[in-house]
Amino acid sequence: MVDVAAIFKAYDVRGVVPDELDEAVARATGAAFVEVLDVLAGPGSVVIGYDMRPSSPGLAAAFAEGVTSTGADVVDIGLASTDQLYFASGRLQLPGAMFTASHNPAKYNGIKMCRAGASPVGAESGLRDIADLVAKFLADGPVAVPVPGRVTRKNLLTAYADHLNDLVDLSGIRPLKVVVDAGNGMGGHTVPAVFATGPVEIVPLYFELDGDFPNHEANPLDPKNLVDLQAKVVEAGADLGLAFDGDADRCFVIDELGAPISPSAITGAVAVRELAKHPGSVVIHNLITSKAVPELVAEHGGTPVRSRVGHSYIKQQMAETDAVFGGEHSAHYYFRDFWRADTGMLAALHVLAALGEQDRPASEVFAEYERYVASGEINSRVDDAAATVAAIEDTYAGRDGTTVDRLDGLTVDAGQWWFNVRASNTEPLLRLNVEAGDAATMQRVRDEVLALITGAPVEEKN
């Protein structure tokens, strides 16, 4: 028996194939998706895409069977990045399902679901109800209608590329040489289409679609997966390097010296560009991004709004505030012009435009957006996360000039430094992020907080 509750996470479905996620679960999920989103009473169709993992086509086909068994139709866009699926959902105004496990290892797969217009489906906005219905269907079987729906196939790759290029026109920038590491993921599918014409020379690295990830995991958040790209940028004398995760919805940036540019700096740079086009707009940033982000937004006439970590919170606040842009420390970037969905490719186009519109190298251009020293995310294994966080709060809450808030975990801000510590939703871990005006202060605060997390083995992630 499949443990449905274990694979339905806060924002998506994720599990090992076939032990936790198989075609029977996908089929039941398709039927449940139609019922919970009341598809038959609305658009009548669901758009489906899938990534390059060996199990993805079969899982997508099973999900489509579940959808059509209810009488609803399916628009199958085939191989796609996650942001390409969001484009299809927005352009066609259909609810959608993307089959991918993003940056997870090869044995995993998953389903990211959205409502029409790429509006998110999370635990509090339908995903929990879908999970309950999947468990029922797996036990009792779904009720099929006499006349099933139809599946039609539609290729939207060119339309997706055209839409992005309409939003950021690179035709007037100086020629750039850019190394792109697709990690054998969907960037190898979308990058050639997006950069089919124009002044950007792409040097491809691992563009072959291969869900077994023979070169390295498609997880640029782990520094070891950037090593090949960093070396290739320097070797090729490139102006920039881009690394995409497995489903190509996140983009990490390497400068011409082979050094990573932080997602907070990219958030700041893109925010400044969007505010130049849309003066006075709101920009959303999660509470782990650098303090430089809200400073830059305010300095350029925008209104910074702080959010919890996670795409559903970012998208909700973007809708409530009509924000033009949102960014997270994890390299998820959200755009009002892209149905408030996250797209690493559009962020990459903004980065290339910012670089190509002047003559300085990337290391100089983006240094303007790096104002502080950050620890990166430090994960510590603990037995009782709540008790540990309470002890940390007791230690810092009474200090002069220190503010404490609980928007997401615990954030302590002393002006010249701040830290956030929050519990993982899925593992017995506390995640610590520290930022300060200089390295010595950051290290001191980091070590003070880690000392309160007694006996915890620590692994650092940038």
Residues in helices, as a percent range? 25-40%
Strand content: 15-25%
How far from one another are the termini? 38 Å
Biggest β-sheet, characterized?
7 strands, mixed
- CATH fold description of the largest domain: Alpha-D-Glucose-1,6-Bisphosphate, Chain A, domain 3
Please work out how many helical segments DSSP would assign.
Answer: 15
Regarding CATH, which class of the largest domain? Alpha Beta
The CATH level-2 architecture of the largest domain is identified as 3-Layer(aba) Sandwich
The average pLDDT is 95
Low-confidence stretches: 456-462
CA radius of gyration is 22 Å
How many distinct beta strands?
Answer: 24
For CATH, the homologous superfamily of the largest domain is named as: Alpha-D-Glucose-1,6-Bisphosphate, subunit A, domain 3
Secondary-structure class: alpha/beta
> How would the global form be characterised?
globular
Number of domains: 3
Characterization of the model:
It is an enzyme of class 5 (isomerase). Residues 7-125, 159-258, 268-372 form the Alpha-D-phosphohexomutase alpha/beta/alpha domain. Helices cover 35% and strands 23% of the residues. The protein has 462 residues and is of the alpha/beta class. The chain folds into 3 domains: 4-155, Alpha-D-Glucose-1,6-Bisphosphate, Chain A, domain 3, CATH 3.40.120.10; 157-368, 3-Layer(aba) Sandwich (Alpha-D-Glucose-1,6-Bisphosphate, Chain A, domain 3); 373-461, Alpha-D-phosphohexomutase, C-terminal domain (TATA-Binding Protein), CATH 3.30.310.50. Strands 1, 2, 3, 4, 5, 6 and 7 form a 7-stranded mixed β-sheet that branches. Strands 18, 19, 20, 21, 22, 23 and 24 form a 7-stranded antiparallel β-sheet that branches. Strands 9-8-10-11-12 form a 5-stranded mixed β-sheet, with helices on both faces. β11 (251-254) and β12 (260-261) form a beta hairpin. The longest helix has 15 residues, at 263-277.
